[in-house]
Amino acid sequence: MVKIKDIYDYIDSIAPFSLQAAYDNSGFIVGDINRNVRRVGIALDITGQTLLIAKRLGVDLIVSHHPVLFEPQKSFQSGDMAFELASAGIAALCAHTSLDCAAGGVNDILAELLDIKKPEPFPTAEFPAGMVRTGFLHMDSGEELAAHTGKMLCAPVRYCDGGRSIETVAVCGGAGGSCLKEVIDAGIDALITGDASHHHFLMAAQCGLTLIAAGHFETENPVVPVLAEKLRQNFPEIEVSVIEQELPVETYYPDILR
After folding, report:
1. What is this structure's pTM?
2. Strand blocks (E) in the chain
3. How many CB atoms lie within 10 A of CB 39?
4. Hey, which CATH number is domain 4-99+220-242, 3.40.1390.30, 3.40.50.720, 3.40.50.1110, 3.30.200.20?
């Protein structure tokens, strides 16, 4: 019989928890690690919606990307996701920045989806080793790269055009805007990430770098089905389900823009 500890050990072997950032809380967070497991659900986030689906599927363990507990808490009460998981007898294992950094993890999958050639880790002082990938993708302009990104991720994108053709691209799923200066200093032509601030766009425009923000969810969620398939292949005796998640953010377009 497969135990949660077996799932933990496998994920640790492909995305070592030791790689996580100092601020992170990847690892086994809720439950009994020695419990037998028959059904596993994979999700980007553990939300109320995730929990409802997990209960309906009879899931014993949720493996998520974002930690169900990120910052220290002094109490656990009804409505807190960790409390609700424990009350439902559902364990939680979370692989966050460890999966961002890992070979075959979030950013390798993102690079592959975007058809970026020869991706390799790009060292930054801002993030743990391997969280940013750089590679090659020819585009005639930043606008063309933005259109390509939106098409590949099926997502609306925000961008500034660096004003030159693209050959080298850095990718960082989620919130990668804080590595912008290091990308600029390295002479890379474009950065594709999930979230970027107004000031990041100003800096990129001033320095002639194309910056694309394609959504936190949209740049990280592609790892979910890949991780689910890896677990199916390595633990054929258990049932592994992708728990679909509805993005809580909607885009409103005034009539004047339609």
Report:
1. 0.94
2. 27-30, 39-43, 61-64, 91-94, 117-122, 132-139, 158-160, 166-175, 190-195, 210-213, 239-242
3. 15
4. 3.40.1390.30
Per-residue pLDDT tens over the stretch 196-220: 999 999 999 999 999 999 999 999 9
State the number of CA atoms in the 13 A half-sphere of 108 facing the CB.
Answer: 15
Domain ranges in the chain with CATH number 3.40.1390.30: 4-99+220-242, 103-213
Q: DSSP states of 1-24 as a string?
A: --BHHHHHHHHHHHS-GGGS-TT-
Quickly name the fold that domain 103-213 has. 3.40.1390
Average pLDDT over residues 84-93: 97
d(CA 240, CA 86): 20
Angle between helices 106-113 and 223-234 (to 10 degrees): 120
Q: What is the mean pLDDT of residues 112-118?
A: 98
Give the residue carrying structure tokens 């799932």: 7
Give the chain's mean pLDDT: 95
Rounded CA separation 135/120 (Å): 7
Rg of the chain taking only CA atoms, in angstroms: 19
Amino acid at 117: K
8 Å CB contact between 140 and 164: no
- Report d(CA 68, CA 136) in Å as an integer: 35
* In the chain, % of residues over pLDDT 70: 99
pLDDT of amino acid 258: 56
Length of the chain: 258
3-state class (DSSP) for residue 40 = strand
